[in-house]
Specification:
Strand content: 25-35%
Strand order of the largest sheet: 1-2-3-4
Distance between the termini: 39 Å
Largest sheet: 4 strands, antiparallel
Order of helices and strands: HEHHEEEEEEEH
Radius of gyration: 19 Å
Helix content: 25-40%
Structural class: alpha+beta
């Protein structure tokens, strides 16, 4: 399947919203998603926190301003208020999803999961990794076979594969990738842990 049909788009959007709400609940409960016993989690949301909350604050200020401007039009005011509240929840939900869905290294399963919020979850078998290195990049030109998951406009880890893996986009488009770039708050720790797992050593 190269892309989702029009009939499936509403269901994909609904699933997306439900995952955001679930992420908010996990965030408030201080829990994470997909981190089983024996696995190691590596966060990537630290670099975007200030920006996301700044954006949410701007949305709140805008909501207050619109409430004042539309106070004489109750019907319009209520519609705009609902949209504004939804926007704030959406922004906070995106950050929450980034916090509770970290990258996960599972040596027992032999898999490295590279994630970004609820949009991306790429499972990379450790035996397909040819090299993994810490590499700070601030520019990313779209290229066939490459997946760039920048946070704060940068990536800090590059994973090159001996065999491609399949990335499924938000709308269901399948694409084979041989290079995955992502960001990790502890990029060096992630690289060391992956290399240890590839060598068969326990991950601390």
């Amino acid at each position: 399947m190269k892309g989702a049909s029009l009939l499936t788009v509403p269901s994909l959007l609904l699933r997306h919203e439900l995952r955001l709400l679930a992420s908010l609940w996990l965030w408030m409960a201080r829990r994470t998603h997909g981190t089983a016993d024996g696995s190691a989690a590596f966060g990537y949301a630290r670099g975007q926190g200030a920006m996301m909350f700044g954006f949410a604050f701007v949305c709140v200020v805008e909501s207050v301003g619109m409430s004042v401007l539309l106070r004489d039009w109750p019907a319009v005011h209520h519609v705009v208020l609902v949209l504004d509240v939804y926007t704030v929840v959406f922004v906070v939900g995106l950050h929450a999803a980034s916090v509770v869905r970290p990258h996960v290294l599972d040596p027992a399963a032999g898999v490295l999961r590279i994630r970004r919020a609820v949009h991306v979850d790429v499972r990379i078998p450790l035996e397909r990794i040819s090299t993994v290195r810490r590499e700070l990049r601030a520019t990313h030109e779209p290229r066939d076979g490459e997946l760039n998951l920048a946070v704060g406009a940068q990536t800090s880890v590059t994973v090159e594969l001996a065999e491609p893996v399949t990335h499924v986009s938000f709308l269901g488009r399948h694409r084979e990738v041989r290079v995955v770039r992502c960001h990790a708050d502890d990029a060096g720790g992630l690289v060391r842990a992956v290399n240890r797992a590839r060598e068969g050593h326990a991950v601390p």
